[in-house]
Design goal:
Number of helices: 10
Distance between the termini: 40 Å
Largest sheet: 4 strands, mixed
Strand order of the largest sheet: 1-4-5-8
Shape: globular
Number of strands: 8
Helix content: 40-55%
Length: 386
């Protein structure tokens, strides 16, 4: 099956998740925001229905699918106005890494809960001074007898307050070369020396952002995920799904904004005809739709490549998908707000908050400029500028 044409199962999954999304909708999410609480009811129901774990192995309670299926779930919830950001982190990044590289005990401990939504895991990679450069990570892990001891700081880590643990990217010293290499550790939320501080964000989101401090956090040997010598491979096994899922998040948000604008343009009459009859209104909305559809095609290609085991090709496609989706989302939201005019800035129509939210897909988890660097070097073979 070509990634450009969805299977019957995929279409059925879209329809089912879209129906769930409509039952909750934008009003549910905005009320949760106003009450400063998490969308626990939607998360729990999505988990119970099997949507949160569609990408995880069946033997651990998952759906046995891949990132292609999980991206459909997030996109359709987003298109209904109620995306679940922790899907990007918990089942997509952490679930994938543990399913692929975890020990039998780690899989038994974490995957069933990640699949049904009863447990969540955050992901800690970004640092204050490293930004998008994973090679400059300064959080270190050193051996102390049979234990590991982690020290360092992380920043802009989503959902740590509700996560049972955080998958932390640290660096260990290679005994052969003396150079530092990345490794991943499961850090329980109540570990001694593991502190968090909420970052005051202008962005309205149910998922809060945190700065983490790891002050000689002592972990048992079994906290290490996978092979100590394969950390980079394991890290990128999580980052490619993160980019695909960020694309799904952005496409869903763009679709939601566009649908609001189209509905408004069909009904709003200022002179003799609905404003949607005017090409100056209709054409930009049509263009936004085209760009969202193109971004989805690249997202589907990236998910297909990743799920088929082609990590190298998936890396290129996932970056391109994330770039295209971020751009398409920002344009769709901007055009939707513009179509509604003053109404686009009111709380009633729920679009103004998306102006800030849509920019997240351009910035996180990696900026569009870093993706352009990646394509320049990796795809086009141009020399590095740094």
């Amino acid at each position: 099956m070509s990634p450009a044409t969805e299977t019957e199962e995929h279409r059925a999954l879209r329809a089912a998740v879209a129906a769930l999304g409509r039952r909750y909708g934008r009003d549910y999410l905005t009320s949760a925001l106003r009450e400063d609480r998490h969308p626990t009811e939607l998360w729990a129901e999505a988990g119970k229905l099997g949507y949160l774990g569609v990408n995880l192995p069946e033997e651990y309670g998952g759906g046995g699918g891949g990132i292609a299926e999980l991206s459909i779930v997030l996109e359709e919830l987003g298109a209904a106005g109620c995306p679940l950001l922790m899907m990007v982190v918990s089942p997509a990044i952490c679930g994938t890494v543990i399913a692929r590289f975890g020990t039998g005990e780690q899989k038994r401990t974490w995957l069933p809960g990640l699949a049904d939504g009863t447990r969540t895991m955050a992901f800690g990679i970004t640092e204050p001074d490293a930004g998008s450069n994973s090679h400059r990570i300064t959080t270190t892990a050193r051996r102390d007898g049979a234990d590991w001891v982690l020290s360092g700081r992380k920043v802009f880590i989503s959902g740590v307050d509700i996560a049972d643990a955080t998958l932390v990217v640290g660096r260990t010293e290679d005994a052969r070369t003396g150079s530092l290499k990345p490794c991943l550790f499961i850090v329980p939320r109540d570990a001694d020396g593991f502190g968090r501080r909420q970052i005051d964000m202008e962005l309205q989101s149910a998922e809060k952002q945190f700065e983490l401090t790891l002050d000689d956090v002592r972990l048992p040997a079994e906290a290490l995920v996978g092979d100590e010598d394969a950390g980079l491979l394991q890290l990128f096994a999580g980052l490619n799904p993160e980019r695909v899922m960020t694309a799904a998040f952005a496409i869903g948000m763009g679709r939601f904004a566009l649908s609001r604008a189209v509905e408004y343009a069909r009904e709003r009459t200022v002179w003799k005809a609905p404003i949607g009859a005017h090409q100056a209104v209709a054409h930009p909305l049509a263009q936004a739709h085209i760009e969202l559809e193109l971004a989805r095609l690249m997202m589907q290609k990236a998910a297909h490549l990743y799920d088929s085991g082609d990590d190298v090709a998936a890396g290129e496609a996932a970056n391109m998908a994330k770039y295209a989706a971020g751009e398409a989302c920002v344009k769709a939201v901007d055009q939707a707000v513009h179509t509604l005019g003053g109404n686009g800035l009111t709380r009633e129509f729920g679009l103004a908050s998306l102006i800030t939210a849509s920019r997240v897909a351009r910035i996180a988890p990696v900026s569009r400029e870093m993706i352009l660097n990646y394509v320049s070097h990796q795809t086009l073979g141009l020399p590095k500028s740094y």
